[in-house]
Amino acid sequence: MAPAPKHLHYIAISIFSFSAIVVQILFSRICSVVIYYHFAFAGITFTMLGLTAGALKVYTNPGRFTTEKVNAECAIHAITFAVALVIGTLLLVDIPGRILTLAEIYLNLWSISTTGACIMLGIAVMGIMLGVYGFIQAFIACGVSVTLLLTYFPAYTSRLYAVDLASAALGCMLVIVGLKFLDPVSILFLLAAMLSWLAWNLGKSTRTRNIMFAFCLLFGTQSLSYVVDAPIFKVRMGKFQLLNNLLFERWNTYSHVAIYPKLEQEPFGWGLSPALDRDKYPDNVQYFLKIDADAGTVLTKFNGDFNKIGYLKYDVINSAYHLRDIKHTAIIGVGGGRDVLSALVFGTDKITGIEINPAIFEALNKSFANFTGNLSAYPNVKLYNAEARSFINSHHESYDLVQISLIDTWATTAAGGLTLSENKLYTVDAWKEFLNHLDKDGILEVSRWYVTDEYNGEFYRMLSLAAAALKETEPGVDVRQHIIALNANNIVTLMVSKSPFTEGDMLKLKKICQKYQFTPLLTPNKPYDDIADKIASGSADQRFYDSLPLDVSPSVDDKPFFFNMYRMRNIMDNRSAGIFNIKNNNAIYVLFALVIITLGAFGYSVLWPLAKLYRLQREQIAGSGGLIVYFICIGLGFMFIEISQMQRLTIFLGHPVYGLAVILFTMLLFSGIGSYLVKSDTLRKSTYKIRSLLLCVLLLATDFATAPMMDMLRSYETTIRILSSVALLIPISLFMGMMFPLGVAAAEKKHAKLLPWFWALNGVASVFASAIAVVISMSYGISATYEMGVAFYVICFLISLQLGKKLSDI
Question: Which of 198, 277, 676, 730 sits at 20 to 30 Å (Cα–Cα) from 723?
């Protein structure tokens, strides 16, 4: 008789799965600060790689991992998970910064040589690498335990798998809540305490109990120190630079926000005119606000005297105020409040500021409210913590100006589909929405980085967006008459007017450029170059865009990666570097390298061992070809569907947190319920045919229904959009959750010993999919990623026609 799992086994798989998803999210969040944003997607890959390696470890050691030793082995790997988690966290977060601090002290006090400083930096980098390795070891330990629990009780796989997925879903929700109160280090220490408690209950070891008490103490002291704004362990290094003298620090699922004192007292501006007399504005006290230790803005000390911030009129990003009479402004991305101050300086009657990041919103409106002049207290200023597109669509107001000034954190190139809060502002769909909410003579004003003949890719893409949005908003429009682009200090500001610019506007523009020394790049009467002229004329087609070194075609919601202009097929083409040498595109090389390294790593650690096993155990594996393809396809299919739906619905819901909490939670929870509904003792041949066919039909129906639903409900309240998204995801999630236990039931009859291997193959496919799905979405669009997922499930349906025959009761 097959062994039955005990209650403790259900608790064990719950804690392992809960911990794995939380660690994955926090690992990505930490790496976005410490290393680079591309690790946001790599976090998924490393997780799946570790889980897969753990499954392979079980399969290759059948003498060690037996049913009788499940408790003992789970206890060993639970404490291994906990210890690796603590050590990996300290190495990744805290220790490298301490080493760099030591190097800085030596450099300042004892004039250590440059070679010595390089050695210290090398040690810090080694610490980070060891920290990443520690996390991978934690995932491997988790993979061993989950594999044991899922495959050593095959008659109960559906129930255990249901608990596995439901616990992961719960982790997605609770990590978001946890980051409102604690830092990632505290949460990771809490997980270590939970895992050590589990190990103690499974093994009853005195040493494990002592480790549990130590981790509980570690969690208590760290969380208390963070609450009182004096964390013992914290991120001390970001992007290989020290994070010292922080005035403010907050973590959330969006980012790590830190505020530093700014030493220079000169007026700060993105595109300040050379005509500005800086001596007229001395003693400007400003603080840096940095997002994930890199991009950011400033908070300006303001006491109500507008004369002291008059220099804001000399910033090219505020050109629209000079050109038109602006009564009502919508500012997207309030940040440190600088654009709000600009609107106040120009005497705007009504100012609506929208900021998506709650930590930035807290800094501006609470922690530094007195410093910045209590901007929200002005009767004509309304500030909202919301996502811009959702807010504007759900509020039926019109504006004279919608202003988007340099909204990015350098993260958008790398986050794939998991963080689209910035990219989604730069699509044809978004700009149509903004234009539709403008008054008759309203202006959409967008500012981006620019350097003549070198740094102009974003300028071209903005032009293509403007042309496409104008043509779709008003067919037959003369695009050229609605566009003006001005330049100052490496910034280009594009003004897209809902109505054509008049001769009066042109005369006023001439005076503005003379007074403020702004350079007109493109006007209705002035061309820029052949590329810009072609785009601005509205006649550029796909063939024209394909002929350019970089992809500057208009980005859309289905392919919203505004900052990604390198085509994957010619990523090594050096022509593009000389023409559009921009930081965002250079980051694509890091993404490309990570994909190669990741695939190489799992090829070496997973595929190569599997190939050797296949040669040694060919007879045992014989006849399992259909099952091998089946488990690979459900791994590929689930990840492609999950990632693509997260990408699409994140844009629809607005907040990236909703994409994580609502979409991932729903898919994991109802996949777990679907798994639970599979009863292996009542399965028939028809079950395989009907359920796999229904899944394919539902996936196709969901694909067709998603876009119309988003169009119809985009202006509804957030609650309605969340409920509709959940309703859309429930049917496909239920049936996707059934596919794994159905495969296990078929494999159990003739290939029960291969179940850990099948689980490993499923993980291999998930590793591959998590990396490649991002590249496919960037290159071909989110719909292409989804459709590939459907194709894999169609293959599963064809194989399912044969799997049912393996059941003995047919």
Answer: 676
Amino acid in position 25: I
Pairing of strands 350-355, 381-385: parallel
Token representation of residue 802: 């044969």
pLDDT at 691 over 70: yes
Q: At CA 792, angle to CA 786 and CA 797, rounded to 5?
A: 125
Handedness of CA 785, 786, 787, 792 (dihedral sign): positive
- The rounded distance, in Å, linking the Cα atoms of 247 and 260 is 6
pLDDT tops 50 at residue 578:
no
Residue 350: beta bridge partners?
A: 328
Torsion of CA 541, 544, 549, 553, to 10 degrees: -10
Long-range contacts of 218-225 (CB under 8 A, 24+ apart): 218/86, 218/189, 218/192, 218/193, 219/186, 219/189, 219/190, 219/192, 219/193, 222/183, 222/185, 222/186, 222/189, 223/182, 223/186, 223/189, 223/190
DSSP state at residue 162: H
The pLDDT assigned to 571 comes to: 56
Query: How far are the Cα atoms of 187, 272, 531, 545, 546 from residue 541, in angstroms, in the given order?
Result: 51, 35, 12, 7, 9
Query: What is the spatial order of strands in the sheet that 248-251 belongs to?
Result: 248-251, 256-261, 286-291, 295-300
Are residues 684 and 746 in contact, defined by beta-carbon separation less than 8 angstroms?
A: no
Maximum pairwise Cα distance, the chain = 90
Query: For residue 339, what pLDDT is reported?
Result: 95
CA 704 centroid distance within chain: 25
| 3-class SS of residue 134 | helix
DSSP annotation of 568 reads G
Interstrand relation of 483-488 and 438-449 (parallel, antiparallel or unpaired): unpaired
In DSSP notation, 227-238 reads HTT--SS---EE
What's the pLDDT at 125?
A: 79
Q: For 607, which DSSP code?
A: I
Sequence-ordered list of residues with C-beta below 8 angstroms from that of 129, at least 6 positions apart, any chain: none
Indicate the pairing of strand 519-522 with strand 483-488.
antiparallel
Per the CB < 8 A criterion, the answer to whether 522 and 516 are in contact is no
626 vs 630: CA distance, rounded Å: 6
**Pairing between β-strand 295-300 and β-strand 286-291 as defined by DSSP bridges:** antiparallel
Specify which residues 446 forms β-bridges with: 404, 494
What average pLDDT does the structure give for the chain? 84
User: Across the strands, what pairs with 528?
Assistant: none
Instruction: Using alpha carbons, select from 354, 355, 521, 496 the residue that is nearest to residue 431.
Output: 496
Distance in angstroms between the alpha carbons of the first and the last residue of the chain: 21
H/E run at residue 772 = helix 755-780
> What are the DSSP E strand ranges found in 482-577?
483-488, 491-497, 519-522
> Region 416-428: what's the mean pLDDT?
69
Contact 198, 73 (CB under 8 A): no
Are the beta carbons of 149 and 70 closer than 8 angstroms? Answer: yes
Run of H or E residues at 289:
strand 286-291
Handedness of CA 124, 126, 132, 133 (dihedral sign): negative
Bridge-partner residues for 494, per DSSP?
Answer: 446, 485
Q: At what angle do helices 718-750 and 755-780 cross, to 10 degrees?
A: 140
Residue 480 in 3-state DSSP? helix
Q: Can you tell me the mean pLDDT for 443-461?
A: 89
Give yes or no for residue 606 having a pLDDT over 70: no
* Under 8 Å between Cβ of 253 and 179: yes
From 38-47, 506-515, 734-743, the region with the lowest mean pLDDT: 38-47
